[in-house]
């Protein structure tokens, strides 16, 4: 029997990476012969590792922290989203030898928001909390969708200002402004969409896990609230949003849908997202209970 077609993720460290759960779950459910593994690749060896994977017949790779920006040097072509987001999360080894860099973070997020809420950022006032890599992917997507206005707030206000400037300069018609984390009540008033990309709410530190990036009473009842944090799946922010009667969009869905977009680029098939989501939730549950 021929070996399965290799896929994988390059990160450093790599022990905590969950994407094998998604992609091996999809391969098994669809009965297709792909096998996906996590590889720990040191930053100084990322170029060698990418070329090695290509020589070894990999169909593609997920690229994660800390390689997402550095790997742009080793691609022959990059998608428009990579150019705008400044980072690669997916490589495709094309049959003609080209290495193509993609970024599925923004489109995965957008598809999941649409599927969960039936709504789209177009015409909405939007608030993004945080100004790191995830914020950039979301800010670009929100602006591309034709949001009415984008407000970016971050603990380090200068990073939010840089991102707002970048969005206005790069996306025709985009309107963005920025600030620190003070007066979030004012920033959120009239917002139809609030996205948390900070690490507030994340499991692993009790104080951080209990924290919402925005006070509960600042969340408008009519807002869609989306969290990048996926462990725990129901974060302090999403619980607060639910109490306000707002629509919530879990980070687990974002994780699955960005993976589904990568899977489609590699295999041409649709990831069975409901089934894969259940596998992810089981894996997260084990992690929280210390069983993995
Ligand atoms: P990612 O690529 O996931 O976006 P990142 O680039 O490390 O990760 O960004 C993390 C974000 O969480 C940043 O916006 C960070 O704010 P700073 O730019 O001021 O560092 C934000 N963040 C981290 N810890 C935070 C905290 N305790 N309170 C508020 N924001 C926090």
Name some characteristics of this structure.
Rossmann fold; 11 helices; 2 domains; globular; alpha/beta; 6-stranded mixed β-sheet; 292 residues; binds 2'-monophosphoadenosine-5'-diphosphate
The CATH topology of the largest domain: Rossmann fold
Number of helices: 11
Q: Could you give the count of β-strands? A: 12
* Biggest pleated-sheet summary: 6 strands, mixed
For the termini, the CA-CA separation is 31 Å
Write structural notes for this entry.
The longest helix has 17 residues, at 251-267. This protein has helices at residues 19-30, 46-55, 80-85, 105-117, 133-144, 157-170, 184-188, 206-210, 236-244, 251-267, 273-288; strands at 5-11, 34-40, 60-63, 77-78, 90-93, 99-102, 125-129, 149-153, 176-179, 193-196, 224-227, 247-249. Helices cover 41% and strands 18% of the residues. It has 292 residues and is α/β, with parallel strands linked by helices. α4 (105-117) packs across α5 (133-144). The protein has two domains: 5-102 and 253-289, 3-Layer(aba) Sandwich (Rossmann fold); 106-249, Rossmann fold. The two termini are 31 Å apart. 2'-monophosphoadenosine-5'-diphosphate (ATR) binds at residues 130-135, 154-156, 159, 197-200.
Blueprint (SSEs and pairs):
Blueprint: E1 5-11, H1 19-30, E2 34-40, H2 46-55, E3 60-63, E4 77-78, H3 80-85, E5 90-93, E6 99-102, H4 105-117, E7 125-129, H5 133-144, E8 149-153, H6 157-170, E9 176-179, H7 184-188, E10 193-196, H8 206-210, E11 224-227, H9 236-244, E12 247-249, H10 251-267, H11 273-288
Parallel strand pairs: 1-2, 1-3, 4-6, 7-8, 7-10, 8-9, 10-11, 11-12
Antiparallel strand pairs: 3-5, 5-6
Helix pairs in contact: 1-11, 4-5, 4-10, 5-6, 10-11
Bound molecules: 2'-monophosphoadenosine-5'-diphosphate.
